[in-house]
Amino acid sequence: SLLTALLRQYFFVSISRACAESQASEHASRLNTMQSAQKNLDERIDEVTMQYRRLRQEAITTELLDVVSGFEAATATNHD
After folding, report:
1. Burial class of residue 3, CB neighbours in 10 A (0-12, 13-18, 19+)
2. Rounded mean pLDDT of 29-36?
3. pTM score of the predicted model
4. CA 19, CA 49: separation in Å to the nearest integer?
């Protein structure tokens, strides 16, 4: 009877441990996937930020060139 009770406890603990290890493995896999997704998002955010800054700088440069060209045209007209 004592041996039967010990065997039941042993099997219960073994099954419980296997379930806990399975859940831990699943959570570790999910964590790894989420970390990979976070890394990809961070990289994409950096790419989009750089693209935004480049386009913004191009727009500023174009506006400055327009202003300078207009100023040069206006001063050339006044000197003629």
Report:
1. exposed
2. 98
3. 0.63
4. 44
